[in-house]
Amino acid sequence: MLTLATPFLAHPGPWHNGGGGPGWWVLFPISFGLFWIAIAAGGFWLLRRRTGWQQKQEDPRTKAESVLAERFARGDIDEDEYYRRLATLHQSR
Fold this sequence. Notes:
- With 93 residues, the protein is mainly alpha-helical.
- It has helices at residues 2-10, 27-51, 60-74, 79-91.
- α3 packs antiparallel against α4 (79-91).
């Protein structure tokens, strides 16, 4: 009985063609997709750097005015001092 089953057990089957698995070609679609994702991400990054889409720096005087307004809103400074300091900021422009 063992001699009759040996040829059937040794045959790899029609889907393997003598190999031990599906083969390297299974990785091709995955690597192909990852390649194009990397190309698109790199292109987007390069475009963003070249065109200056980065967040612009806020003007220091505008920031000073907002800090001054916050201090006035909290009650740290009174109205006269707020307008005096605001006038000083506007004169320095």
